[in-house]
Design goal:
This protein is an all-alpha fold. It contains four helices and no strands.
């Protein structure tokens, strides 16, 4: 039996609000970049991204990526994340996780 403990992931030692503020659509670019910087120090970053894609998660920063960035990866891989949105067939999913200068 391996007695080594797994190294903790940085997000477990950080306020979760940093990673999930986009649930309400009110993320600031600063908060998103802060979460991404934390993810970039994590040994489990790729695993976290894969987990988010496999679960169809559409909220928060996972694996150092926003929802929009994960949607792009999912599209390339042929994963349909739109099924996790409760929208009509004519409505386009609104993804609000990044702040633009136009807002």
């Amino acid at each position: 039996m391996n007695s080594q403990k797994a190294e903790p992931v940085p997000c477990q030692e950080t306020d979760p609000e940093i990673f999930f503020t986009d649930i309400t659509g009110h993320s600031s670019l600063y908060t998103i970049n802060t979460a991404k910087r934390i993810c970039n120090t994590c040994w489990f970053k790729q695993g976290c991204l894969e987990l988010a894609l496999s679960l169809g998660d559409v909220y928060g920063i996972w694996g150092g990526m926003t929802r929009r960035e994960r949607w792009k990866i999912a599209a390339v891989r042929g994963i349909n994340l739109s099924k996790y949105y409760a929208i009509s067939k004519t409505e386009k999913p609104k993804i609000v996780d990044e702040v633009s200068d136009e807002d």
